[in-house]
Design a protein that fits this description.
about 140 residues; mainly alpha; 6 helices; about 75% helix
């Protein structure tokens, strides 16, 4: 056996019980997983999105109910929970948008280097989280 064959890294499957605590996922991996999570979250919250849109544009009275739901709540769900759900929806939309634009750019320009993948993933995470914090502050009335 030659020396180069022995110096190559060994790739193996990850054991969920022993390896996950020490495994470091690169930023591009986080973006990929969170892109799927944000898509599922937006799909699951679609009835809530439709209700929000319908309630906010039907009439002035229904819009007042919609605004009141943010502070008083809806049924058994308190207002802070509704706002937290909206914040999750805001993050899901922003992350899915930026990750999708990242993928479209990489497909259009064939920019698939490791460095570009890492840098664009960091920018995607930073933009989506930064704008979520900014819009969340507005949602919770901090400005």
């Amino acid at each position: 056996m030659n020396e180069t064959a022995q110096s190559k890294p060994e790739f193996r499957n990850i054991n969920a019980f022993t390896d996950l605590t020490t495994y470091r996922l690169p930023p591009a991996g986080w973006v990929s997983i969170l892109h799927r999570v944000s898509g599922v979250l937006m799909f699951l919250l679609l009835p809530f999105i439709i209700w929000m849109f319908d309630t906010s544009v039907s009439s002035e009275i229904s819009f007042a109910k919609f605004k009141a739901a943010m502070s008083v709540g809806i049924g058994v769900y308190p207002g802070w929970f509704i706002k937290l759900t909206l914040l999750a929806l805001i993050w899901a939309y922003l992350h899915h948008l930026f990750a999708g634009l990242r993928h479209l750019y990489m497909d259009a320009t064939h920019s698939v280097s490791r460095e570009f993948g890492r840098l664009s993933a960091v920018w995607t995470l930073g933009l989506s989280l930064g704008l979520t914090v900014l819009l969340g502050a507005k949602l919770f009335g901090l400005y």
